[in-house]
Amino acid sequence: MKKSYKGRNLRGQDFSDQNLSFTDFTEADLSVAQAAKVKLMGSNFSKAFLWKANLKGADLRWAFLKEASLRDAVLRGANLEKANLEEAVFVEAKLEGANLSEANLVGADFREADLTGASLTKSKLTRAVFLNANLESASLEETDLTGALLVNHTLLNLKKANLKRADLSGLDLKATDFKEADLTGAKLREADLKAATFYKADLTGADLTGANLSITMLKEADLTGADLTGANLSRALLKEAGLEDATLEGANLDGSDLTGANLKGANLKGASLTGAGLQGATYDDNTILPISEGEAQKRGMVKK
């Protein structure tokens, strides 16, 4: 028989190591409760209050936490795979190493939450809020972030994050730190990435059509086969970047630094290179340049 604590005051209760799977905690007060490593698979926490609750290592697979408040809760290493967390509040929550794969996080609030190393693979993050959140080394592979609020004059940490095939199209990601992140095949169409950092990031095959990459740091980034058609790369740092077979048709590269960049097979038809640094940039017979070969070599480009 399923247990029910619906609407109960369970503040500070110790449930550690218990099996409470499929229990009804609807609208219950579980603030400061101790539930480390508790089995809560399929349990219902709809509109429950879990302020500062300890759910470290808890099994919350398939749990229903719609509109639950987990402000400042501890969920390190918790398993929330396929859980329904729609409109849930995780402000200042500790979610390091948590598994949120395939979870419904539509409209969830992660302001100032620590998601270091967490997995959000294939989760639904429409309208989710991540202001000041720490997503370093987190996995957002194949995640749809359409309409998510990631930055608001704050710095978002996505260093070493796994964003393979993630959809970040149209998002405001100004000044975001993508250092050494894996963005292979990611969709960043018309995203605002002004002043973002992509140092040594992997953007192989990424779609950056129409993206704003002005004053962006792309030093040593791998953009092999990436689509940068119509992108704004003015004053961007692309020193030693890999742009082999990339499409830069109509891109604005005015004042950018392409020193030592690999442009072999790249298409720069109609691109603007006014004031761009091209010293040591390499190209080949398959490279389509918007300037003559004579001018290219005069400006320090090297044919290989």
User: Would you tell me the overall average pLDDT?
Assistant: 94
Q: Quick one: overall form? A: elongated
Class inferred from helices and paired strands: little secondary structure
**Biggest beta-sheet profile:** 2 strands, parallel
**Helix segment count?**
1
| Order of strands, widest sheet | 1-2
Counted beta strands: 2
Low-confidence stretches: none
Report the β-strand fraction as a percent range: under 5%
Helix content: under 10%
How far is the first residue's CA from the last residue's CA? Answer: 74 Å
Q: Give me the strand/helix succession.
A: EHE
CA radius of gyration is: 23 Å
Gist?
The chain has 304 residues and is low in regular secondary structure. The chain is 2% helix and 1% strand.
Present the secondary structure layout.
Layout: E1 282-283, H1 293-298, E2 302-303
Parallel strand pairs: 1-2
Structure commentary:
The chain has 304 residues and is largely without helices or strands. The protein has one helix and two strands. The termini are far apart. The mean pLDDT is 94.
